[in-house]
């Protein structure tokens, strides 16, 4: 293969890159954001709001049975970690589209046998993302902890087919009563593979955007020419893989013509493991070694197959992995007095290893991209959403999460033995 050594730069979602391998040193870093989950999540209403703070909405997705849950049964260090359950909220994110409605404000409060729509529309109609309610379809009371119900029959209340007779399948995750009160938010789910309407693919599940949680007070914390590092430990105990985004990183968000956006993806292929992390960027025009086109995006691949990874760096269920990234912002073009034009000297690096092997397998970046027109960060997320076309079950554990400036963060020494893959079947909730 001939290696293209042309320069790299961003222009309107375009990244041109050179991939090289160098080692990095670990010196003092200035922490911007740090979570070990030993004391739970930080108070979302701290005053003044710290830099790189979790948004208040994170709390709405974190509780027993929710999408996130604090746990003291599995940890990389200490006693606690954050569990991510893609099948939380009684599987709400594994639904294939539907419609959100209100329980009729004139309906009797406390009903536990039926739902009546406030719109008085025919709930059996399926035009333009309609609910298409029928026997056997699922219904969620999102106001009552995402309690999960099955439709038994469709009847008339105030209009044609505006009433659904239901039976409870799973109570709400917040121990809310399994009832329908006036103005409760009700979600009628479509059937995957039949008439799903989340996208043009009838099998596409909900992206579950509530997982993303963009960090607050980020703008202005990175100077041109300065590096920011993001390190965390992750253990994936997934029974079925999903196309999980591990974070988003954006610049020039109010300047669409110069918007830059990068996300880091961990995905499985079918039902097989290992899970493979992919660095994905948008619309690369010139592709060099190990950067492969993937539709409208590109992915880093060290070999010819999508599942190729360096020896020893394929993710295995039940093991903790060290993941660290560097985002070196480009410097400003001094000839442009607007302060918006960047030089082509930004850089990106990714380190991955099993926990305990950070100083050997994780000492050299497996991806390094230089000569990027990468502006200072304006939006960074705690996590990402996920695209999936099959029911996703299992857990992801997150621990020892830190964001810092100036120098590589490096390892957090675990006080537990790295656990080897569990014997199937895995826990599915």
Structure description:
Helix content is 1%, strand content 33%. Strands 1, 2, 3, 4, 11, 17, 18, 19 and 22 form a 9-stranded antiparallel beta sheet that branches.
Short description:
The protein is mainly β and 429 residues long. It contains one helix and 22 strands.
What sort of overall outline do the alpha carbons produce when their principal axes are compared? globular
Q: What portion of residues is helical?
A: under 10%
Radius of gyration, in Å, reads 24 Å
Judged by helices, strands and strand pairing, the structural class is mainly beta
Unreliable segments of 5+ consecutive residues: 1-27, 282-288
The largest pleated sheet is described as: 9 strands, antiparallel
Q: Separation of termini?
A: 46 Å
In DSSP terms (H or I, runs of 4 or more residues), the helix count works out at 1
Strand content: 25-35%
Give the number of DSSP strands.
22
Entry keywords:
single chain; 429 residues; mainly beta; nine-stranded antiparallel β-sheet; 22 strands; disordered N terminus
Secondary structure elements and their pairing?
Elements: E1 18-19, E2 30-35, E3 68-71, E4 81-84, H1 88-91, E5 98-102, E6 114-116, E7 138-141, E8 147-155, E9 163-170, E10 185-189, E11 227-238, E12 243-251, E13 260-269, E14 272-282, E15 291-294, E16 297-300, E17 320-328, E18 346-354, E19 367-372, E20 379-380, E21 386-387, E22 394-405
Antiparallel strand pairs: 1-19, 2-22, 3-4, 4-22, 5-10, 6-9, 7-8, 7-10, 8-9, 11-17, 11-22, 12-13, 12-20, 12-21, 13-14, 14-16, 15-16, 17-18, 18-19
